[in-house]
Structure formats: C-alpha cells, structure tokens
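Re: the multi-chain job from yesterday

Posting the exact lines I submitted so nobody has to dig through the queue logs.
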Amino acid sequence: AQSVTQLGSHVSVSEGALVLLRCNYSSSVPPYLFWYVQYPNQGLQLLLKYTTGATLVKGINGFEAEFKKSETSFHLTKPSAHMSDAAEYFCAVIMGGYQKVTFGTGTKLQVIP
Amino acid sequence: GAGVSQSPSNKVTEKGKDVELRCDPISGHTALYWYRQRLGQGLEFLIYFQGNSAPDKSGLPSDRFSAERTGESVSTLTIQRTQQEDSAVYLCASSAQGAAGQYFGPGTRLTVL
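And the result, structure tokens for all chains:
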C-alpha cells in the first residue's frame, strides 16, 4: 500500500523568504516521488521527480526536493519565494514497478509582498 | 498532439442527464488516469488504464460512473443520471511509464444544475 501526507493545507511566506512544503509518504517498496504544481485556473504540471540515484532533485522555477528514506520524506524547498510561486502544490507517490499514483491533499502557497 | 487534450472544456447539464467526457492522451503513452477535483479540494483518483490490462476502477464513486479506453488512445468517462455532487473538474492524465510522471490535460469543468 502507498499513501502521501502533506502537512499544512495552507502555507504563507513573505516574498524572498524560504519556501518549505512538507510531504511524507509510506510505501511497501522503493517509491517514485513527484511534486506537481497547479497555478490558478490551470492544469497540473510536473515540477520535479525522484526515481533512483541522487536524492536531491532539482526542478523547474528554482524548486528542489530531497528524498530522505530514513524520514520517509520528500519535502519541497525554494530558497527565495517569488510572487509567481503562488499556487497549489501536490506531492504524489508511485510504488516502484507499478503505475497507480497516489496524491496528497495539496498545499496552497501564498506569497506575501 | 503535443499534450493531453480534453473535451469539452466546460459542460453544464441538468440533474438526471447523462454526460460523456473525452480525453486524448499523448501518443504512445500506455497509461491513462482519470481524477476528480472538487472546488478547493485535492485530486480524487477515479480510474486507471494500463495498456491492455484490466482497468483499476477502485476509485469510481458509484455505478453511475464508467470509463472506457480504446487501445492506447482515446478514453471516455461517462456519468449517468448526474447529481449536483458530481459538479467538479474532471482531469485526465497520461504517462509513458510510472517513473516519467504524468502529463495532465486542462480538465473538463462539469456543472450539474
């Protein structure tokens, strides 16, 4: 079985501040992990992914995430928030070798000028 | 096409009527997913197709919901005897393989009056 928990349905940060969106997963086999972003009134877009290899992965728009097996976490970070980062972010997991995706409930990021 | 397309983009219907939503995946993508996103909420998995395997229908909320896929191409999601609680955005996504991540269509916004 697999599941995803995103802590905090809403996160507010000041422009220029660190962005940290939390994601914890459970999986009975090595997982594939993803972050998706949904801008207002738009579809979901893949931000970054971890499958194998380097545990620190970089995505678009300056975001990155680190796979920590010991903590079963895949938190999303960005050193300096920009107004254009305001969106909803979804963490997702696939158990390796399978393709059914489980999404978290999403975190809405607000960036305050 | 270049991406996943869905039609119609908007559908308004009366309670009790049947509706059919269409998804055209990216050519060559063997996996196709349907999700429902209610206003202000996360993604709710509905159904998953993988090649010629039997679809995973575990997310369909009732027997009013059904979906078909022709080979590795177009999929249709049918909702019979629509209810007001069916109002949502219905998202389709396709994937070449689990590790590649999903590509989402723009969604169909369904409003049941």
